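Aim 2 progress update. The chain analyzed this quarter is reproduced below.
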Amino acid sequence: MHDIYKQSFKKNDVDHIDLSVFNCGLQSCEGGYTWGPGLRNHYLIHYVVNGKGTYTVNHMVYELGEEDVFLAKPNQLITYSADGDEPWEYYWVGFNGVGAGRLVMELPFREERPTHHCENAERVKKALLEIFLSRGPGPRDEARMVGYLYLFAAELMKETAGRAPRAVRSSEQYVLDAIRFIQFNYSRDIGIDDIARAVGVSRSHLYRVFMSHVGCSPADYLTKYRIGEACALLKPSALSVAEIAVSVGFFDPFYFSRVFKKHVGVPPSKYLAQASGESASMPELPPSE
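Predicted structure tokens:
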């Protein structure tokens, strides 16, 4: 009988609104061990080191084994179970943030196939393990984990590099175009109707594809992106809070302060004071959902 173990690391808070490692770990499961049915509020990727199991999502059951990876998106109803006779051992990483959905769209997963068999399995496994080995609560640890998360994603991207070009699904393209529009126009007085019009879809369709591919609404994405840019300007800055508000697309400084506090936990004036060294500790951002 194989050894059963679980080692994991989970951050209580997320420091980076763009991309952050939410949790990571290693586990050797007992026969029949099951998680779910349930929802996650972040993206989650498992790599199967050995053994077998099943992954259920969107009413589909996938049988997986050694060197397979599978993806769970935020707010998807999922179940994964270890085989009764040959239970799997896997590594995993959970991550979130405004940039998480954009990163996932570059990986070899699709809506109709959220699994992938690795061709360069050792490189993928090593990159994923490095995230866990870099775990820790401090800003340096967070930076290292996010760095290794990008390297892990790069290894997965290589998996499709040698294959014939694949047409991007139209719904994914709408999301990518919307994200680019937000990145170039967030400082202007834009709303969801402007974004939908720019990418050529209805407001309701834009909402559906964002929820499917990014895990949040386009309005939430726009707000989080603006707050992320505001945080960058506040570390530290010679600009006033009102000037920063206008710079990221909030033309009412009082409304900006309310939204900022809701997402960050403190008003921008206090965040600015702490960023300038008047407090020894920085506030941490809540996990993106």
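Residues 278-289 have pLDDT under 50 and may be disordered. The two ends are 39 Å apart (CA to CA). These observations will guide the mutagenesis experiments scheduled for the next reporting period.
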